[in-house]
Structure formats: structure tokens, C-alpha cells
Automatic annotation (TrEMBL):
Domain of life: Bacteria
InterPro entries registered for this protein in UniProt: Virul_fac_BrkB
Chief place of localization: membrane
Topological relation to the membrane, as annotated: Multi-pass membrane protein
Lineage of producing organism: Bacteria, Bacillati, Bacillota, Bacilli, Bacillales
Protein name (Swiss-Prot/TrEMBL): Ribonuclease-like protein YfkH
Length: 278
């Protein structure tokens, strides 16, 4: 018990020190900016794939809608609808390359933030680093699509199985809880992949679990908490007018970025602790 308490105390002290030393507020602001620039190109790719996958358009933003503040979600949906309504044909041909390149900017910023957490330089060439960011972007698109397909077909399969026993209503009551659990598992997989692959450090996949677990729990709780606060106690449109929705979106992205970077710092702490003990 004493050793675990010392580890937790050391982790808290180090994180508090790293927040100032590595300028986590500043890095989070930069990452939130890149997230904003990457968000809509990434969503454009997803929406362009709609004709080729069995997912209704209204379900495409389901996971984001589940956690995002209402004002931010309305702004995202409005912007995407405008872009898709006025887009030119053939986006899946040459145009998608530029879209993927833009979407990978957010991943590229995460790579730099994680390298700073581990105090390592980026020794990989520009093409290798950018290629990895693009591959991670494709990976996130695949996992995002999987996250959409699983709940849709999972609901249908669950209803079919439970209806055979006459418990279809019970399943529908349990579905909201089950969908949150599935979303949490998918987020954990996404964060594990990011923490394992993105830094310019070699370590085992399981070494990314502490930061991934923290980021998953922290992101869900902070997103739901901020969404509840915006929906019940704050009205940014009164203060900022027509750009209130953008402010809400940026604050949400900033909180998300801070938690993701903090997860990287947690993994860096345990990685350093392991090296010191060896």
C-alpha cells in the first residue's frame, strides 16, 4: 500500500510539474487549433464514404453527438451540411488526398506533443512522420466507421435475440448503457493506438494502457460534464453572439487536447519509472 501511495504521489507531483514545464495549456491550445482545422476535412471524408457503407447519414455523427455540447454539435452539423451541399463531384478521387493531408495535421500535432512528453526529438524524416500521421488518420477513420457499424448492427442483433425470449423491451432499456460501454472500449482502443505508435519511442503496447485508460475516462467525464454545464448553466451566445457555438467547440476541443496530452505525460512517467527500475 505504501509503495502504491508513493507512486501516486510521485505521479501527481510530476504531472503538476510537467503541466508547467512542458506548457500543457499552450500545447493544448495549439492542438485544439489543429483539431479544429482537421475536424471538418475528416468528417468530409466520412460523409463522402456514406454511399459505400450501410450507415445512414443521421447516424454518422452519433458518437460525437453523444458527448459534444449541443451548441458545438449544431455548429458541426450545420457546417458539414453546407459543405456537402456545395461540394463538387469526384471528391473520392484526387481531392481526397488533400483532405486526408489536412485531416492528418491533428495527428501530426499529437506526435509533437507526445515527443515533448517523452523528452525525445523527432528523428524520423518528414515523409516518414507525415506518412505515419496519414496512416493513423486512416486508422481512426476505420475505427470511427466500426464504432458506427457496431452499435447499429449490435442493436438489431440484440433486439432479435432478446425478442426470441420475449425480452425486447428489457434490451432497449439496457441499450443506452451498453452503447456507452461500447463507445468507451472503442475510445480506449483509439487512445492506445495513438499512445503506442505516435511517440518516437519504442515500447510495448501494454505500456500505453495507463494513459489510454486515463484519457478514455477523463474525456468521457469532461465532455459530459462540459456539455451539461453549457446546456444548463451557461449561454455563450449571449456573451459572444453568433460565434458562441464556435467558442463552445473550441473550449471542448481544448479540454479534449489537454486530457490527451496529459495521458501521454502519464505514460511517459511510467516509462521513465520502468527504465529507472531496470
Amino acid at each position: 500500500m505504501g509503495n502504491k501511495g508513493n507512486v501516486r504521489s510521485s505521479l501527481i507531483r510530476l504531472l503538476w510539474h510537467r503541466i508547467s514545464e512542458d506548457d500543457l495549456p499552450g500545447l493544448s491550445a495549439q492542438l485544439a487549433y489543429y483539431f479544429l482545422l482537421s475536424l471538418f476535412p475528416l468528417l468530409i471524408v466520412l460523409f463522402t464514404l456514406i454511399p459505400y457503407i450501410p450507415i445512414p447519414q443521421q447516424d454518422m455523427l452519433g458518437i460525437i453527438r453523444e458527448f459534444a455540447p449541443v451548441d458545438a454539435m449544431q455548429f458541426i452539423e450545420k457546417t458539414i451540411n453546407e459543405i456537402m451541399r456545395h461540394r463538387s463531384g469526384g471528391l473520392l478521387s484526387f481531392g481526397i488526398i488533400g483532405t486526408i493531408w489536412s485531416a492528418s495535421n491533428g495527428i501530426n500535432a499529437i506526435v509533437r506533443a507526445f515527443n515533448k512528453a517523452y523528452n525525445v526529438p523527432e528523428s524520423r524524416s518528414f515523409l516518414v512522420a507525415r506518412g505515419m500521421a496519414i496512416l493513423l488518420t486512416f486508422g481512426m477513420i476505420f475505427i470511427f466507421l466500426l464504432a458506427l457499424i457496431l452499435p447499429i448492427f449490435g442493436r438489431e442483433i440484440g433486439q432479435f435475440i432478446f425478442s426470441q425470449f420475449g425480452y425486447s423491451k428489457l434490451f432497449l432499456k439496457l441499450w443506452n448503457t451498453l452503447s456507452v460501454v461500447v463507445s468507451a472500449i472503442i475510445l480506449f482502443v483509439v487512445f492506445t493506438g495513438l499512445y503506442w505508435i505516435a511517440p518516437n519511442v519504442k515500447f510495448r503496447c501494454r505500456s500505453a494502457f495507463p494513459g489510454a485508460a486515463f484519457a478514455t475516462f477523463g474525456w468521457i467525464v469532461s465532455s459530459l460534464g462540459f456539455s451539461f454545464y453549457v446546456g444548463n448553466f451557461s449561454n455563450y451566445s449571449v456573451t459572444y453572439g453568433s460565434i458562441g457555438a464556435i467558442i463552445v467547440l473550441m473550449i471542448w476541443l481544448y479540454i479534449s487536447a489537454f486530457i490527451i496530452i496529459l495521458g501521454g505525460e502519464i505514460n511517459a512517467f511510467y516509462s521513465e519509472k520502468y527504465r529507472n527500475n531496470c
